[in-house]
Amino acid sequence: MRGFRSLAVPNPADLCFGRAPNPLKTRQGLLIGGGTVYPELNFTLPPMLVESANMPAIAQQYRQIIAGALARAIELEAPGLIVEFETLPPMTEHPEWAVEITRILADAMEDAHARQGLRSSLRLTPNDTREFVRPPVMRSGHYWDEMLRTFDEGAGAGAELLSIESVGGKEIHDEALTACDMPAAIFALCVLGVRDMQFLWTHLQRIAESRSVFCAGDTACGFGNTAMVMAEQKMIPRVFAAVVRAISAVRSLVAFECGAVGPGKDCGYENPILKAITGYPMAMEGKTAACAHLSPVGNIAAAAADAWSNESVQNVRLLGGMAPTCYLEQLVYDCRLMNQALADGPDAVRMMQRWMVNSDAPLDPQAFVLSPSVCIAIAQAIVDAPDYYLAGKAAALVAVRLLREASLAGRLKISQREQPWLDMIQDSVEGLPGSESEFIVRMLSTLDPGKFLPAEYGL
Amino acid sequence: MADLQSITAAIIKGNRADAAKFTKQAIDESVQPREILNAMVSAMDEVGRRFQCCEVFVPEMLLASRAMKESMALLEPLLTKAGIKPAFTAVIGTVEGDLHDIGKNLVAMMWKGANFGVVDLSTNVTPARFVAAVKEHGASVVGLSALLTTTMPKMKDTVEALRQQTAGNVKVVIGGAPVTQEFADQIGADGFAPDAASAVAVVRQLMRT
C-alpha cells in the first residue's frame, strides 16, 4: 500500500503555516488548512491516581478545564479551537471513563458553539495500551479490544478527530536509541512500525466511517520524540535524533495511506514531511509546548502548522490562572500572529516562515531537518522509494547528506563530538542490504527474540 | 605482566576483546580477584563521570558496560570461590501503571557496573511485587522510576508498602523526568537521582550512612 507517489507540496515556500492543499472541514465549520491557524489545547490531570473512586473528582477537573478554556477562547475572540483529550492509560483500559470525559468536553464545546458561536472540534487520543504486555501482543487481546472500544464509543460521545501515539516497533526502537543503532531503528520504524500502522489504521478507519468522524493521524512520538528528549538530556547525539526524525515520517505516513485526513497530531514533528507528501493539514507544537517538554524546535515547528498546540499541561494553578487557560491564551496569541501574516498576504507569510525557520535551523540538526527545503527533499526520497524499508534508508541518507553539507557550509552548528556520528550513521545505513527481505532475515537473526513477536507484525 | 590499568582502559574504551584479554592475563598471573574487580568498577565510575561531563553518550556507556560484562564472565568464578559478592542487592523497576524504562535500564546498567547486585523487575511493577522482591533477594536498596505525573503517586504507595511490610532498613531511591528531590522528601524516599550516573553515587552515600 504505497499510496503517495508524488508530492502535494513540492515547493518549500508553499510548505507554510495555515494552508494545506487538502484542508479539512469539521462539523462546526473549522476549515483546518484553509487559511487560518487554529489553537489546539491539550491538557492533563495534576498528580492524582486514575481509579474508580477518583472518577467524580477527575470528571470535575475536566469540567473545570474545558469551562476555563472555552471562556477564555471566547473572550479572546479565537477564530476557532481544537481541543485534544489525550486519555491516561487507566481510561483506555476502562473505556467508560474515557467516554464520560469525552462527553463532558464535547457537550461543553457544543454549548459554547450554540450560545457564543465558538466553533471547535474535539480530538480523542486513546493510549496504545498494547505495550502493557511485554513482548507486546499487537493484534488481539484485552488491551486491543478495549483500545478500539475507546475509539468507537468516544467517537459516539462527540470526538470528531481520532488520533493515537501508536507503539508498534517501539520495543525494538528503545534499545536502538540507547545503542544508537540505526539499522535497528530502521527495522523498528520501517518494517515493524509500518506493518502495525497498516493493521491499526485500517481498523480505525472503519470506526471513523461508521461514526462519521475523521481519522486524523498518528505520530512517531515514542520514537522520534523519545530520541529528541534523549538528545536534549545529552544521552544520544542530536544528529542521530535528527536522522530518526526523518525516518519516522515513513511510519507516520501509513496512517494517511489508510485514510487519515489530518490534522496530523501535534507531537509528530515529522508532520511537515507528511504535509509535503499528502497535502493534509497538520497540528504542530513548539515553544508553547515547553510546559510538557523542552525542545530545540520551538519556532521552526510552527513554520508548516495548521493547528498550533501546547502538547499537554497539567491542570494546576499558576499566577495567571489555571494552567490550561493560561496556555490556551498563549496559543491564541501565537495563532493571531500567524493569522495576521496570512491576512497580509503571501509575502508576509513567507517572511514570517523565514523567521521561524532561520531562527532555529542553524542551531540544531533536529531543527535543520524541519526546514521546508529539507522536509521536501526527505519527502521526495520517501515517495520515490519502492517500499517502506528503502524509503527509510533513503530518508536517512538524504538527512545525513543535507546535515553534512550544511555543517560544512557553516549553515548548521554540529559539535565536534557529534561530527563522527554522521559518518557512522551513513556507513551503517549504506551497509544495509538492498532488499527488505534480506534486511528482515539479517535483523531477525541479530535481535533479541524475547523482545517482540514477529507474528504480531505479520512476519 | 598483568596491568590492571589496561583492564580499566579497555572497559572505558568499550573494547570487549581487550577487556577479556587483559582480565584473563591478570587471572592467569594470580592477581587478587578483588583487585581485578576494583579495576573494572573504576572503569565504570570513570565512564559515569565522563557521561555527566558530556564527554560520552549513552551508546559509549553501553559499550563499556558490555566490555565489563565480558571481563566479569571470566572473573565471576573466582569471585564466587573467594566468597566475594556484591556488598548489597538493589531491586529496581518502573512503578505501577508506567511503562517507561530507558532511564531505569541505564540506572540498572550503572549499578551493575558499580558491582551492586541488581534485580530488575522491568515496568508496571506493583508495590506488592517490589515488597516480594526485596524479601526474596534480601535487597537493601530499591530504585523506583516514573515518567508520568499520574504514576508518581505510585512511588508514594510503594515507599509506604516497603516501610510497612519489610523488616530491614531498605533505602529507596527515586528518579524520572517529573521527579524531584522535593517529591522524594515528601514521600519519605531516602534519595533522588537526577540521572543514571549520579544514581551510583546516591546509593553509595546512602549505604555508607
What can you tell me about this protein's structure?
The complex is a heterodimer of chains A (459) and B (209). Chain A has helices at 55-75, 89-93, 95-116, 142-156, 170-179, 182-211, 221-232, 238-257, 271-278, 323-344, 346-360, 365-368, 372-384, 388-408, 419-430, 436-446; strands spanning 19-25, 31-34, 38-42, 81-86, 120-125, 161-164, 214-218, 283-285, 307-309, 317-318, 321-322. Chain A has 459 residues and is of the alpha/beta class. Chain A starts with 18 loop residues before the first strand and ends in a 13-residue tail after the last helix. The mean pLDDT of chain A is 97. Chain B is of the alpha/beta class and 209 residues long. Chain B is built from nine helices and five strands; from the N terminus they run H-H-H-H-E-H-E-H-E-H-E-H-E-H. Chain B has helices at residues 4-13, 16-28, 33-52, 58-81, 102-113, 127-137, 152-165, 181-187, 196-208; strands spanning 89-94, 117-120, 141-145, 171-175, 191-192. In chain B, helix 8 links the parallel strand 4 (171-175) and strand 5. In chain B, helix 2 packs parallel to helix 4. At the A-B interface, helix 5 and helix 7 of A face helix 4, helix 5 and helix 7 of B.
